[in-house]
Structure formats: structure tokens, C-alpha cells
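agent> Task received from the user: take the single chain below, predict its 3D structure, and emit C-alpha cells. No templates, no multimer pairing.
agent> Plan: (1) validate residues, (2) run structure prediction, (3) serialize to C-alpha cells, (4) report one or two observations.
agent> Step 1 OK, no nonstandard residues flagged.
tool_call: predict_structure(input=
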Amino acid sequence: GNVVPQYKEQADLSRKKEVYKIVFVGRMVRNHKRPHLLIKAFIKLAAEFPDWTLELWGAEDKRRYQKKLQRMVDEAGLSARIRFCGTTQDVPCVLVNSDLCAAPRAREGFSVAYTEAMSMGLPLVGYKSCVSVAELIDDGVNGLLAADGAEALAEKMAVLMSDRDLRVRMGAAARASMRVYAPEVIWGQWEKLMESVVAAQS
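)
tool_result: status=success, residues=202
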């Protein structure tokens, strides 16, 4: 794994709020990041959860796809609750003010965005079919894994959106699960590997 920041601050999921937030961090790429699936899932849940919003952080990929995403939002009448926020140099500030992180990706390497969200104490919802995401999520412990499709993603999101105590427990577990990627752990593993390679060449 890569080094994951071990944030001193933590998202306060136990606090009762007027508005709760789902966050997505990543480029707006159709066949890879698939934010359209997350938007579809949120649209399905919007009426049931009127105190929730969705923020999508990341650069546009293709203008036609971005227009399609915006049209989906506008047609659902949710422009006030689904926001495209562009890029940021302060990801921790985005994460610490969120309540749930969604990972609709089809494929992924070791995701810095998702591990940072988990390190901030956010439970993660993603797809079983995305191997790297499925490796990060211990289903039912630090997040939830969904079958493919917007409907299945919405079902798993609803489980966490409807249960603050569950979000708190899974968020704490997500934060704890990222300790294996602390800098001293990862750099220690690299150091041992390099020492073993050097010793094998001697």
C-alpha cells in the first residue's frame, strides 16, 4: 500500500446536523470513476432523505459528459442538493465536514482519495466488483459493498444514511483500519525489503 495520512482531526459523525453530506472525490470520468451512478443513486434517495446533500469534488474530464451529469441533476430538480464543487487544495477540510464517502468506481489502483476519507473517519460505500475498493472495505465493519448498478448502490447508501450510530461505528472502524498504512509502517516495510534485496546481492 501507499502511505496514508493519519489525521489528528476526525469527522464528527455523532453530531446532529441540519444537513448531512455524502462526498465523492475524483475526476468526472464516465467509464472509470462513474459519478453518474452515484448521482442516479442519490436521486433515488433524495425524497426519503431530504436532509442529505451530495458533493462531487474533482476536475471535469469531457465537457459532453459533464453536461450530461448537470442535466441529470437539473431534471431531478436537485441542483441545490447535488453540487459539482471543482477541485480543491484542501481535501482534509472537505472530508472532515462530510458524513459518508461513496466510491462508484469500476476499477482503481490503490486509492488515495478513499483511504484519506477512511482515515478521516468516514465509512465507505463501494462496489464488490471493484477489487481495490473491495480490499479496503470490510463489508459491514468499516463500510458497505454493493452489487453493480445504481439501485444496489442506493440501497447500501440508505442503510448508512438512515442510521447515525452505524455511521459512527463504521467511521471509527474505517479510521482504525487505515493505521496499517501509517508512514512509519509503510516506510518500515520498504526499508526491510531494500535490506533483504541488498543482503541477497552480497
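agent> Step 4: summary for the user.
The beta strands are 20-25, 52-57, 82-86, 100-103, 124-127, 143-146.
agent> Done.
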